[in-house]
Write a structure and sequence with these properties.
The protein has about 260 residues and is an alpha/beta fold. It has a single domain, classed as Stationary-phase Survival Protein Sure Homolog, Chain: A (3-Layer(aba) Sandwich), CATH 3.40.1210.10. The chain contains seven helices and eleven strands. It has a nine-stranded mixed sheet with strand order 3-4-2-1-5-6-7-11-8, with helices on both faces. Strands 9-10 form a two-stranded antiparallel sheet. Helix 1 packs parallel to helix 5 and helix 2 runs parallel beside helix 3. The longest helix is centred in the middle third of the chain and has 17 residues. The radius of gyration is 19 Å and the shape is globular.
Length: about 260
């Protein structure tokens, strides 16, 4: 089995090392794990691609590369340059430091990498580790992902829905903010929404007097509706959410057509 891995926290991120362990276990002794990850952190870039400028790519070791691009760029580089047209069986993106549940998913570079793989017709899973007091104080903040990640990825690979439509299904997996022994299991759930929890900006002045704006996020432990991703994460479950890149509001189409005549 050939697996391509990437992330949005950067090539040296601890979560990528965890993902390498997960991918190596899933690929098996005769498998291949290829890494193409950003040279520096790309959190919050979503599904952006470096369409207006070139990106440098460097080989760091056997099957290990860094690019000056986004996670989506890394997937493109892996598919069409590094692997020289040899398609991977699976693309894994993560393990992100922090959750990509609820509305965070819309900003996530981790999901952007998985989404690009799906658009390219390759099965893909994004993995993220929800953080919290129990995790921050643990010797290994990625323990839940490290212990449970390979089994869940293998289960998804063997039993998940892998279609061949125009906008293929990919998966968003979030590990809860608890120790591995306290993970209650996994639940297949919808993407939630954190009410009254939005990104904003906070102004600051540099010593030079210049004014800057820092983007500031809201509380991460605000639960979403029961039975959705962040809610089950905060209850100790791994969330598994099937997603597509199709942004059409299908439930509105017929009503809008009637309204517009």
């Amino acid at each position: 089995m050939r697996i391509l891995i990437t992330n949005d926290d950067g090539i040296e991120a601890p979560g990528l090392k965890v993902l390498t362990e997960i991918a190596t276990e899933v690929a098996g002794p005769d498998g291949e794990v290829w890494t193409v990850a950003p040279a520096f952190e790309q959190s919050g870039v979503g599904h952006c691609i470096s369409y207006t400028r070139p990106m440098m790519i460097s080989k760091l070791a056997e099957r290990r590369y860094a690019t000056e691009g986004s996670p989506a760029d890394c997937v493109l580089a892996g598919l069409y340059d590094v692997l020289e047209g040899q398609r991977p069986d699976l693309v894994l993106s993560g393990v992100n430091r922090g959750n990509n549940s609820a509305d965070n998913a819309l900003y996530s570079g981790t999901l952007g990498g998985a989404m690009e793989a799906a658009l390219q017709g390759v099965p893909a899973i994004a993995l993220s580790q929800f953080l919290g007091p129990l995790v921050f104080d643990a010797p290994d903040m990625f323990e839940a992902a490290r212990v449970h990640g390979a089994a869940l990825v293998r289960r998804l690979w063997e039993n998940g829905v892998w279609d061949d439509g125009d906008y293929r299904v990919f998966y968003n997996v979030n590990f809860p903010p608890v120790l591995a022994a306290d993970v209650k299991g996994h639940k297949v759930v919808a993407q939630g929404f954190r009410k009254d929890c939005y990104f904003g900006v906070e102004p600051h002045h540099a010593p030079s007097g210049r004014r800057f704006l820092w983007v500031k996020g809201g509380p991460q432990h605000t639960p979403t509706a029961p039975g959705t991703d962040a809610a089950v994460n905060l209850d100790g479950y791994i969330s598994v959410t099937p997603m597509r890149a199709d942004l059409t509001a299908h439930d509105v189409l017929s009503d809008l057509e009637a309204r517009l005549g």
